[in-house]
């Protein structure tokens, strides 16, 4: 084993030449590409993080909207229930009023009819009783006005009694 | 022992084998990396690009384990070149080696190979052409020298006060010890790498001599040699980073 200084020099030269050749023609490009890839990955990761954040915000928003919609629906149902209750009451009220009105009308009609009937009956009865009386006492009782009034008055008294 | 094909160029003894193997190593590394960075793509990397990026990330991890990655960014290229170069160099000698028996006064490019000078007729010099370049201590010494110069230069440039001060710490009398420590670093680097790879190749030669019985050992040893080659490349790189971080970065007390 002997050391040749010439070999040392040749090695140093060849190593330095190789270093600069590689540096110039290969490594700078490779490092550039690797740096670009690093940046790409970084930007993609940032983007992904952003997207995730957005998605989370969106979900939150949706949740809120859903909650709001549920609340609205609940309100609407509640309101409509109240309205329907009120309406039902109103209708019931109206129906009651109607019934009362109809009843009172009917009562009034009956009263009227009854009065009319009584009136008719009374006049009928007056004339019939006058006829009967005139038949019975044909001669004595004259069919004049004074006597008919008298009978009427009498009958009124009779009919007025309960 | 095999000889090196050395020719004398007017006082400069050129080792043709070392030159060739360094050239082959450099070309393989360069072509590999060039292929990996062809058609670079951010979103759809090719397999080779993926592999290269894995290597880069591995080296980044190595650098980050030695120093702050922000300061160490400039050394990633150095670490990559080192680890690829040494790994490829370590593997080159594994599949085969080329040895020629040369007669006396064999000439290459019109120059006589030194090992064949003065050989008697009928004798041959066993000249080793194809080997791991890192199985030559001169080559590993060259790499270690690069690291040594670089770490001291960076220490002086970036961290002068603390770098110089560390030579006389904890007491001025430790100066020689600290200088030896500093010098021991590249020597240890060079010898560790050389010895591992050289021993591996020697053992391959020895196993080859056992003939057919050696096949299972050969398989095991080849696999282990690949592991050693990767491990030594890794060790060389991480030690480089540790040394650089030692000289350039001073701990805040």
UniProtKB/TrEMBL annotation, chain A:
GO terms for molecular function: proton-transporting ATP synthase activity, rotational mechanism; proton-transporting ATPase activity, rotational mechanism. Its main location: membrane. Belongs to the ATPase B chain family. Pfam families: ATP-synt_B. Residues 52-120 form a coiled coil. It is found in: Cell membrane; Endomembrane system. The keyword Transmembrane applies. F(1)F(0) ATP synthase produces ATP from ADP in the presence of a proton or sodium gradient. F-type ATPases consist of two structural domains, F(1) containing the extramembraneous catalytic core and F(0) containing the membrane proton channel, linked together by a central stalk and a peripheral stalk. During catalysis, ATP synthesis in the catalytic domain of F(1) is coupled via a rotary mechanism of the central stalk subunits to proton translocation. Keywords: ATP synthesis, Cell membrane, CF(0), Coiled coil, Hydrogen ion transport, Ion transport, Membrane, Transmembrane, Transmembrane helix, Transport. GO terms for cellular component: endomembrane system; plasma membrane; proton-transporting ATP synthase complex. The chain crosses the membrane at residues 6-27. F-type ATPases have 2 components, F(1) - the catalytic core - and F(0) - the membrane proton channel. F(1) has five subunits: alpha(3), beta(3), gamma(1), delta(1), epsilon(1). F(0) has three main subunits: a(1), b(2) and c(10-14). The alpha and beta chains form an alternating ring which encloses part of the gamma chain. F(1) is attached to F(0) by a central stalk formed by the gamma and epsilon chains, while a peripheral stalk is formed by the delta and b chains. HAMAP family: ATP_synth_b_bprime. It comes from the Bacteria. This is ATP synthase subunit b. Signal peptide: none annotated. InterPro entries: ATP_synth_B-like_membr_sf, ATP_synth_b/b'su_bac/chlpt, ATP_synth_F0_bsu_bac, ATP_synthase_B_chain.
Automatic annotation (TrEMBL), chain B:
Its main location: membrane. HAMAP family: ATP_synth_a_bact. Belongs to the ATPase A chain family. GO terms for molecular function: proton-transporting ATP synthase activity, rotational mechanism. It is a multi-pass membrane protein. It comes from Paenibacillus lactis 154. PROSITE patterns: ATPASE_A. It is found in: Cell membrane; Membrane. Key component of the proton channel; it plays a direct role in the translocation of protons across the membrane. NCBIfam families: ATP_synt_6_or_A. One of its GO terms (cellular component) is plasma membrane. Keywords: ATP synthesis, Cell membrane, CF(0), Hydrogen ion transport, Ion transport, Membrane, Transmembrane, Transmembrane helix, Transport. InterPro entries: ATP_syn_F0_a_bact/chloroplast, ATP_synth_F0_asu, ATP_synth_F0_asu_AS, F0_ATP_A_sf. Pfam families: ATP-synt_A. The chain crosses the membrane at residues 16-37, 75-99, 137-156, 193-215, 221-244. One of its GO terms (biological process) is proton motive force-driven plasma membrane ATP synthesis. This is ATP synthase subunit a.
